[in-house]
UniProtKB/TrEMBL annotation:
Record's protein name: Oxygenase
Pfam short name (any one): TauD
Domain of life: Bacteria
Gene3D superfamilies: Clavaminate synthase-like
Amino acid sequence: MLDSHDVDVESRRALVTAAEELAADGLLGDSVLADPAARLPEPLAERLADVLRPPAPGVGHRVVRGLFAGFTDPGPTPLHWRETDRERCAALDIALVLVAARFGRVFGWTDQQDGRIVHNIVPSPGCEAMQIGSSSTTELAWHTEDAFHPDRADLLLLVCVRNPDGIGSRLSTVSSAGLDERDIRHLLRPEVAILPDDSYEDDTAAAREPVGMATLWEREGSLGLRYDPSYSRLLTDDEEFRDAYGRLGRALEAGSFGVPLAPGDLVVIDNDAAVHGRTAFRPRYDGTDRWLKRILVRSPRQRPARESLEHGYGQRQVDAHGGRPVLRV
Ligand SMILES: [Fe+2]
C-alpha cells in the first residue's frame, strides 16, 4: 500500500551542502525562491528525478525516506509555530523549499502562519482538541488541505523533523474508496460548502455567502476529491446525497493506511487524490514533541470549471517565487 523510496547517502550530502551554502548567504526557506538563481544543483536534481515527481493519482502519495536526514538538529520543538527559530532551521527549510519547487509553484497564505512559506506543525498548548495541525489529543479528521479554496495546493509536502512516539499520519485515496456509480453521480453535485479551518486568522468567513462545492470531479482517468467534513455544511436535505456523503466518509476510513514518518522523511501527497489525517497523541511540551514541516505546491491540474467562480473567502496567496523582497538575516 505504501509507496516508499530510499535516498542514497551521496544525494543526502549534496542536498545538505547546497542548502547550507545558501543559508550561509543569509537566506531562509521563506526567502530563498525570491532569488531566481536558487535551485537544486542540476546533477542532484537528476539523481533525484525518479522520486521528485508527482505521485500517480491512483496512489496519491510518495514517501521519500531520509531525504532530509543529513541536516543538523534544529533545536527543541517549539511550543507554537511562531516560536520556530527560522535561522536555525534555515538550511533544512531551504532544502525543503528547493525540493518543493521541483514539483511546481510554491506558495503560502497571507492569513496562515503569518504568510510563511514553510509551515511548522507542532502541538501547541490550548489547541489540543481543535481540528488543526497544532492539535494533539484529538484525532485530526480526514481532510483535503485548504479544501475551502479553489486555488488550494495540488501537492502537499510534509517533512518529519522529529517524531519520537511514531505518531502516524494517515492517508486514504478516493480511488480505493470503491464508490459505486450512483454515489459518484451524487457527489459530483456542488452541494457542500466548505469553510476555512481554524488555522486561518480571518473569522469573517462564516458570514460570507456559502458556495456549493463538488465533492468529486472527473479527472484524467480518475476522480478528484475535495473533502473536509469538519468544516463543511451540506446545502441540501436530499437524503440520497447525504447517504452518499456518509458512505464516502466510511469508505475513506475503511481504505485508510498509516504513513510512519521518521526524522528526515518526506511524504508528498496528491491533494486531489488523497485526504490525510492524524491519530491522537499526548503532547509532551518539553521540546521533544512531534514536529513536521509543511509546504504547499501548485501545479495546476483539471478541476471543476465552476471553482473559478468561487470567492475563496478572500484568502490570498503568498508567492514564494517573487514579488517580495529577498529577506536576509
Ligand atoms: Fe492537513
